[in-house]
Amino acid sequence: MWLLKRPMRAVFDPRRGVVRFPALFPAIDATSAMARELKTLVAGRTRNDQPAHKRIDARRARITSAVRLGDWSLAVEIRGANHEYAVRHALNLINELFLALHESYPEYLVAHFGMSTE
What we know:
Elements: E1 11-13, E2 18-25, H1 33-43, E3 61-68, E4 71-78, H2 83-104, H3 106-113
Antiparallel strand pairs: 1-2, 2-4, 3-4
Helix pairs in contact: 1-2, 2-3
């Protein structure tokens, strides 16, 4: 219960060193503009032109996103002993993803998360 009025799910696989946020955004068409924008935002995190506090060092963590069965998910592969780094950056990214949806797709947040129309 962090950004929403409902629980958010995170799954840690210690064997693979991966934290997944399954169905972070439900009911998303993989070919939609919204899915493309979310994917672009995630992919952009590793670019050198990102501010240091937002940039994800690929030597420490690798972040990917995917749409499966209509649900958009995020996964963080933790490299080495960088668990705190990877989780902190993933949570910051999730916060920014919600902000991006709030700006560009508020109707989606109203419909799927019960957020206020204000």
